[in-house]
């Protein structure tokens, strides 16, 4: 199992990767949705953490692509947006797990539990 991190903020991506390594996972980071979709080899038992505020292709679009793939991986959205903006963006993705930044190891562990 691989944990993919799609996050444009390098500091957030690094912190999340280090937390996942502490939980004995193998994280891979991608700076945007386009890079992730072009390079990642995704298995159904993988996890994908996707920032909703990505530049270019939005995090919600990346998540829709994953869900439409037929056999999607486990997906967790991450966001630093306000609750109102977040709810508006996620209307079409009602069953999605969402973590608010700043993230903690407990939040990550619970989401993957």
From TrEMBL:
Q: Which InterPro entries match?
A: CheY-like_superfamily, Sig_transdc_resp-reg_receiver
Q: Which residues carry this modification: 4-aspartylphosphate?
A: 51
Against Gene3D superfamilies, the record matches this protein to: 3.40.50.2300
User: Coiled coil: which residue ranges?
Assistant: none
- Signal peptide, first to last residue: none
Give the residue spans that cross the bilayer.
Answer: none
Ranges for domain Response regulatory come to: 2-113
Q: Which UniProt keywords apply?
A: Phosphoprotein
Taxonomy, superkingdom: Bacteria
Q: What is this protein called?
A: Response regulator
């Amino acid at each position: 199992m691989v944990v993919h991190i799609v996050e444009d903020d390098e500091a957030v991506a690094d912190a999340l990767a280090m937390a996942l390594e502490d939980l004995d996972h193998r994280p891979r980071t991608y700076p945007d949705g386009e890079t992730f979709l072009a390079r990642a080899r995704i298995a159904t038992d993988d996890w994908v953490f996707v920032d909703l505020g990505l530049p270019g292709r939005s995090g919600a679009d990346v998540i829709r692509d994953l869900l439409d793939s037929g056999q999607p991986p486990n997906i967790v959205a991450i966001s630093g947006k306000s609750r109102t903006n977040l709810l508006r963006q996620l209307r079409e993705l009602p069953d999605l797990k969402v973590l608010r930044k700043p993230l903690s190891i407990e939040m990550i562990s619970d989401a993957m539990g």
